[in-house]
């Protein structure tokens, strides 16, 4: 008589409950792993959580919603959409930088408006757009060649194309910043 042992489910423990940890946990659980998340704080969210005390609520982390395409891709991978869970409201101005009482700069909600603000402070308009275009290109390359790799080996990131880009990226950023600061 042959008896078969039950298949053991691999168990994974993830430390921390920020966006990356929760994302990893959901992908792993979706692939059949038994996932446990350990969090030192009383609530989930990592830097995206909030803290409440004496009637006030404080954001504990980012004030910008970076890389919305990454969030959309994540939810789409589970046949969901960002709008199934939350609604975003674009702020204008996005925020203010205070230098003292009644001394501040408003950072508005578009590249054009931000450029106009910086142009009033310092004449860097054309340089700003060139740097923005280069940063946008670097972002696209990073998203295509780096961010969505499975992360099994450093060799995933080391390709002739990424090596060429790395040299370009570091020398380009340094030279552009030096040009602006002159």
Describe the structure in your own words.
A hairpin with a 2-residue loop joins strand 3 and strand 4 (56-59). The chain has a two-stranded parallel sheet with strand order 1-2. A two-stranded antiparallel sheet has the order 3-4. Helix 4 (125-147) runs antiparallel to helix 5 (160-181). Among the domains are: 11-45, no CATH class; 124-182. The longest helix is centred in the C-terminal third of the chain and has 23 residues, at 125-147. The protein is extended, with a radius of gyration of 22 Å. The chain is built from five helices and six strands. By secondary structure, it is of the alpha+beta class.
What structural class is derived from the secondary structure elements? alpha+beta
- Approximate strand percentage: 15-25%
Question: Portion of residues in helices?
Answer: 40-55%
The beta-strand count equals: 6
State the end-to-end distance: 83 Å
Radius of gyration: 22 Å
Q: Would you list the SSEs in sequence order as H and E?
A: EHEEEHEEHHH
The biggest beta sheet is recorded as:
2 strands, parallel
Mean pLDDT: 82
Q: Unreliable stretches, pLDDT < 50, 5 or more residues?
A: none
Strand order of the largest sheet: 1-2
How many DSSP helices? Answer: 5
> Quick one: overall form?
extended
């Amino acid at each position: 008589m042959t008896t078969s042992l039950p298949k053991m489910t691999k168990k994974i423990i993830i430390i921390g409950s920020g966006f990356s940890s929760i994302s990893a946990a959901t992908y792993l659980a979706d692939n059949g792993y038994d996932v446990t998340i350990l969090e030192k704080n009383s609530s989930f969210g990592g830097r995206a959580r909030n803290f409440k005390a004496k009637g006030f609520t404080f954001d504990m982390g980012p004030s910008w919603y970076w890389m919305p395409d990454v969030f959309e891709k994540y939810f789409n991978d589970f046949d969901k959409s960002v709008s199934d869970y939350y609604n975003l409201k674009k702020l204008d101005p996005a925020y203010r930088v205070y230098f003292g009482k009644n001394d501040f700069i408003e950072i508005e909600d578009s590249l054009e408006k931000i450029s106009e603000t910086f142009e009033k402070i310092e004449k860097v308009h054309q340089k700003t757009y060139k740097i923005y275009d280069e940063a946008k290109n670097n972002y696209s390359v990073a998203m295509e060649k780096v961010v969505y790799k499975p992360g099994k080996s450093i060799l995933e990131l080391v390709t002739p194309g990424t090596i060429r880009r790395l040299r370009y990226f570091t020398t380009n950023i340094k030279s552009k910043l030096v040009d602006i600061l002159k």
